[in-house]
Design a protein that fits this description.
2 domains, alpha/beta, Rossmann fold, 362 residues
Length: 362
């Protein structure tokens, strides 16, 4: 099988770098174009990134000498690729416009950005949780006037540290959820070298994050009606989002009450047995075991558990009854792998497996 040709929009930033790292030696996809801002265009990728390579693994040899293209030259980039991953750093309106421009150039867009998360006919997908939302793509194509081009987005990185746990328990009717997320600095696209103020520090505010954390799970649990996704009305979710001095890995402290209270054993069983479509299809990036549960009181820990299943699995622990809510527990997900680029790659694999992304005829 010949590999699909991939472009990375915003390839010089942290999430773009993560996409490039994850796609090295991918069995289905090959990075053939990297596009970035006009100031990076015309340079080799190695020159454009300079000393800003933030991954722990070396820059892949295959991309070092690749000449970076101008992300605004939509037709030129689209002509060389079958689809693109979008991780551009622009204003929300600029992101909306450029992603639509690529879609209208008949190039599917799998976006890491938040700009289109609430566009009614753009699916916002965690592949294990709501793959059925992809059916609105046909309605989006009608609106855009395209035959192949469309946009799919992934949700905010922080919600992956608790939403899968709640999703696996939907039969019990979660009704009220309180979650506090303790978010790594890579979620801001930074490391400690960039952001020395975060050493020995906690910042109790991340702009816009709490609204996303409260509302986006409801969109994931929404229904497709008349070619649009209508968000769910429950559970009621309230959150606080805090930046902590951790490189990677978002931790969540979660409290939840149910319509029909399960036993502790029923919860752990539901988590350990949960599988989604990516597991059934055996997609290349899919974790074999999506959710793991720790019996130890001091796990999960970001340092030791964020790379579970190559960063694509999620971890939970400290499940116990609560005096106000029914239960409380702690969750952990890798924010730049499962929560960002890795989630995007898995979404693209699902889109390919279901026939939404195909090779363009050359």
């Amino acid at each position: 099988m010949s590999k699909l040709r991939v472009g990375i929009l915003g390839g010089t930033g942290m999430v773009g770098q993560r996409f490039i790292s994850l796609l090295e030696n991918h069995p289905w996809f090959e990075v053939v174009v990297i596009a970035a801002s006009p100031r990076s265009a015309g340079k080799t990728y190695e020159e454009a990134v300079g000393d800003r390579w933030k991954m722990s693994t070396p820059m892949p040899e295959a991309v070092k000498k690749m000449i970076v293209k101008n992300v605004n030259e939509v037709e030129a980039v689209s002509s060389e690729v079958d689809f693109v991953f979008s991780a551009v750093d622009m204003t929300k309106d600029e992101i909306k416009a450029i992603e639509e421009a690529y879609a209208k150039a008949e190039t599917p867009v799998v976006s890491n950005n938040s700009a289109h998360r609430w566009t009614p006919d753009v699916p916002m997908v965690v592949p294990e949780l709501n793959p059925e939302h992809l059916e609105v793509i046909k309605d989006q194509k009608k609106r855009l006037g395209t035959s192949k081009g469309f946009i799919v987005v992934k949700p905010n990185c922080s919600i992956q540290s608790y939403t899968p746990a709640l999703h696996a328990l939907r039969e019990f009717g979660p009704k009220v959820v309180l979650a506090t997320t303790y978010q790594a600095i890579s979620g801001a696209g930074k490391n400690f070298k960039d952001w020395p103020e975060m050493i020995d520090n906690v910042i109790p505010y991340i702009g816009g994050e709490e609204e996303k954390s409260e509302q986006e799970p409801l969109r994931i649990w929404g229904k497709v009606e008349n070619g649009q996704i209508v968000k769910a009305s429950s559970p009621l979710i309230t959150t606080q989002c805090i930046r902590v001095p951790v490189t990677d890995g978002h931790t969540a402290a979660v409290f939840v009450s149910f319509e029909k209270k399960p036993t502790k054993d029923e919860i752990i069983k539901a988590w350990r047995e949960f599988k989604g479509l990516p597991q059934e299809l055996n997609l290349p990036s899919a974790p074999k075991q999506f959710i793991q549960y720790f019996e130890e009181d001091n796990r999960p820990q970001a340092k030791f558990d964020r790379d579970y299943e190559n960063g694509m699995g999620v971890s939970f622990g400290r499940l116990r009854e609560d005096t106000v809510f029914d239960y409380k527990f702690v969750g952990l997900s890798h924010n730049t792998v499962r929560g960002a680029a890795g989630g995007g790659v898995l979404t693209a694999e699902l889109l390919k497996a279901q026939g939404y992304i195909e090779a363009k005829s050359k």
